[in-house]
């Protein structure tokens, strides 16, 4: 029986399997069944006359032939997606689909109202949200799994366009009755002997806090890590340690159980920005989202009320 001729879907499926190192996860992300994606990949292997993956139980990895095809296929798929997106923008105007990455703390604090307002204005545009730490969101925007992401700045501006929508600083949380409770401010060096409760390693604040502590002259003693700011604050309340959290989060802290103190020497900035790839086509819907979010977030959260004009 003659193998099917290679088409763009086969290459798209192959690239997704290679990116995720899994047939099942690729099938889920593409909203197709695993047998369908397995058959498409097998047809591609038959047509090329070479195995593309080593199958070792439930794990897979690329063969030499797979590595060669991946390099070429990524360029072909990106070119096809860019062409399709441009044509869709011309045909459908403000209809479309946007993939946006949001760290949990950022998404819960800043985006529900923005997304709701955007949906009311553009009901035919669908938004798929992906919640991950800021570092994972940045990686997924770079690889093309996401169109746009909200991250903790700074970011590599050679790769990404960016606009800033929040400029705050970190504040110190200590339990009521702590030796530092009630102080107007505390320099970072005074925390050298304290035990810290931090965000997990895939959150940008994890590395930011440790870096600032090391620059100040000590390695922080980390006793607990979490992905949830409210759990971190409860750990502080229970006396497990201290924490450094953004001003926005600290406004919701129960001040009867936790003391919030200004952190100085140094002040650790917390800036949020929306990013997208410089070299990748943005759909009309994604452009509308950026302009809309820039206006709403800049007006609500930046002191000047202006986030600046993004480059599109």
From TrEMBL:
One of its GO terms (molecular function) is DNA binding. Residues 6-63 form the HTH lysR-type domain. Gene3D superfamilies: 3.40.190.290, Winged helix-like DNA-binding domain superfamily/Winged helix DNA-binding domain. InterPro entries: HTH-type_LysR_regulators (IPR050950), LysR_HTH_N (IPR000847), LysR_subst-bd (IPR005119), WH-like_DNA-bd_sf (IPR036388), WH_DNA-bd_sf (IPR036390). Keywords: DNA-binding, Transcription, Transcription regulation. One of its GO terms (cellular component) is cytosol. The keyword Transcription regulation applies. The keyword Transcription applies. Belongs to the LysR transcriptional regulatory family. This is LysR family transcriptional regulator. It comes from Paenibacillus riograndensis.
